[in-house]
Design the sequence.
């Protein structure tokens, strides 16, 4: 007797049961968290970007800050609250769409690599501080020295109407 269909059904059910609580936790964190700050390396020649410009940078449409300084995109690993905010507000994509978007850009030779995935806040701060041209999103309550917070639409995190919540 072949138990393969029953085993596949059991595995799919288990995967769904494990995924659902993590997905709901992620959504709950996004809706109740603090503002998310856009930070860059202290030497990056940018202080203020419109939300549209932030979107262009993170979509890989703007690849250089100036003629000699490339943009280095850093984004938190899946399930980080900051990543959820970025996917929802900036990319306006699901996790799957985000992955497909970058695969397609690489396939079309529009970019050489997708954003660099960062697995912890400390790693993210170290990379932004050390890499000229680096840009990332961080919890605004936990901004470290050595990075520059970029105004978005003329506003800083905490200002009324700040778009990255």
Sequence:
């Amino acid at each position: 007797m072949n138990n393969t269909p029953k085993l596949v059904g059991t595995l799919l059910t288990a995967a769904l049961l494990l995924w659902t609580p993590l997905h709901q936790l992620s959504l709950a964190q996004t809706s109740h968290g603090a503002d998310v700050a856009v930070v860059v390396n202290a030497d990056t020649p940018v202080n203020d970007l419109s939300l549209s410009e932030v979107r262009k940078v993170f979509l890989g449409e703007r690849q250089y800050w100036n003629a000699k300084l490339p943009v280095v995109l850093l984004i938190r690993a899946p399930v980080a609250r900051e990543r959820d905010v970025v996917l929802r507000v900036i990319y306006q994509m699901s996790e799957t769409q985000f992955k497909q978007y970058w695969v397609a850009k690489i396939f079309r030779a529009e970019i050489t690599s997708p954003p660099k995935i960062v697995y912890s806040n400390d790693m993210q701060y170290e990379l932004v501080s050390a890499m000229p041209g680096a840009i990332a999103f961080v919890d605004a309550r936990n901004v470290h020295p050595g990075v520059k917070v970029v105004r978005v639409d003329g506003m800083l995190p905490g200002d009324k109407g700040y778009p990255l919540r």
About this structure: The chain has two domains: 1-32, 34-152. The chain has a mean pLDDT of 83. Helices lie at 4-32, 51-58, 81-91, 95-107, 121-130. The CA atoms of residues 61 and 83 lie 19 Å apart.
